[in-house]
Design brief:
The chain is of the alpha/beta class and 374 residues long. Helix content is 34%, strand content 25%. It has 2 domains: 274 residues, Spore Coat Polysaccharide Biosynthesis Protein SpsA, Chain A, CATH 3.90.550; 85 residues, no CATH class. One of its GO terms (molecular function) is mannose-1-phosphate guanylyltransferase (GTP) activity.
Length: 374
């Protein structure tokens, strides 16, 4: 097969498009998760932006999307060039190891020796040139046998992200920036995050993983042999429509639900098999309304960001973010760092400081049986 000009040989992009983005409720719902929304005012959904960022790197015919069965129509409407064999449907969410591992197993059967890169469908990345340069280095490190991630150079002591502690340089051909990973660190408190940024040897964990598919599967086999066995069985049945459905129904619900950070990245780092490429491009995982406000206000805390095609907002001496999907007039007077999300059937009012706590509202709604607004 001819490699399109400018793309990376043997490279396949994988886009896990799952989760509901519960910290962005009530904007993000089970039937309309955050990757299907335009959260930056670009005119594109986050999923479409991800596709356009990856297509020049791997080629449109070498992008695989892993998503839920319920989202297939919406995903295909957003991505009309997505090849049908590259749509991988989950019967239910089983977290990132299962999603990315299945993609790796399918692609390794189709193309032994393939290098895959996993990039979330709901992240915002600016400066595509720097992003592409980081991916090229990550592919070179992966070809050398490392599980590789791209870490983001911190611009502030953020407490909403995990951190990667970098060790010394690896001196790999084609990847001059590659560093060994010392450890992964969970979301820290503010004082700890300030220490990480001052130290200079920590990067934000952006959840991007690049590896030879066979090496990724080896790591899963080491730490989660039962999960690996199920993924291999699924991949063997995948490309035959007669066997795929029964295999998914039988195997998928029994797969362990675990994030790839825990099943692959942390054990690989402990064994010296994980590399990181520092990324110097603007990145955000749009994890809550505070980050969404910052994205849409140019980083100026005094501004009020407004999202919604027909938003009717009157504001005086107010800052924060308003997301409007209704026709109501929203008036704000003298409120700072406010978050207002107005949808036809649910209203959220909080502050940027408490934006991370929105997930607790979603959990409470589940417990009370109010699933009609989820």
């Amino acid at each position: 097969m001819t490699t399109p000009r400018g793309t990376i040989e043997r490279f396949y992009s994988v886009i896990p498009a799952g989760g509901i983005g519960s910290r962005l409720w009530p904007l993000s719902r089970a039937d309309a998760p955050k990757f299907l929304h335009d959260l930056t005012g670009s005119g594109n959904t986050l999923l479409r932006d991800t596709w356009e960022r990856l297509a020049p790197i791997s080629g449109e015919q070498r992008i695989m999307v892993v998503t839920g069965r319920a989202h297939r129509a919406a995903v295909e409407a957003q991505l009309p060039s997505l090849a049908d064999p590259n749509v991988v449907l989950e019967s239910e969410p089983r977290d990132s190891t299962a999603a990315i591992g299945l993609a790796a197993a399918i692609l390794e059967r189709r193309e032994p020796g393939v290098i895959i890169g996993s990039f979330a469908a709901d992240h915002v990345i600016r400066n595509h040139r720097l992003f592409t340069a980081a991916v090229r280095e990550a592919v070179a490190a992966a070809d050398a046998g490392f599980i590789t991630t791209i870490g983001i150079k911190p611009t502030e002591p953020a407490v909403g992200f995990g951190y990667i502690h970098c060790a010394g340089p690896l001196e790999l051909s084609g990847a001059p920036s590659a560093l060994a990973v010392g450890s992964f660190v969970e979301k820290p408190d503010l004082a700890t995050a300030e220490g990480y940024v001052a130290d200079g040897s920590y990067l934000w964990n952006a959840g991007m993983f690049i590896a030879r598919a066979d090496r990724l599967l080896e790591e899963i086999a080491r730490t989660k042999p039962a999960l690996h066995k199920g993924l291999i069985e699924l991949a063997a049945a995948w490309d035959d429509p007669a066997t795929r459905g029964p295999a998914v129904d039988r195997i998928w619900p029994r797969l362990e639900k675990i994030a790839i950070d825990y099943a692959v990245a942390e054990p690989a780092a402990a064994a010296g098999r994980l590399a990181v490429i520092p990324g110097y491009f603007d990145w955000d995982d749009v994890g809550d309304f505070a980050s969404l406000a910052k994205l849409n206000s140019g980083g100026r805390k005094s501004d009020l960001a407004i999202l919604g095609e027909d938003a009717r907002v009157l504001a005086d001496s107010s800052s924060g973010i308003v997301v409007s999907q209704s026709k109501r007039v929203i008036s704000l007077i003298g409120v700072r760092d406010i978050v207002v999300v107005d949808t036809p059937d649910a209203l959220l009012v909080t502050t940027s400081e408490n934006a991370q706590r929105v997930k607790a509202v979603v959990d409470a709604l589940k417990l009370t049986g109010s699933t009609d607004v989820l």
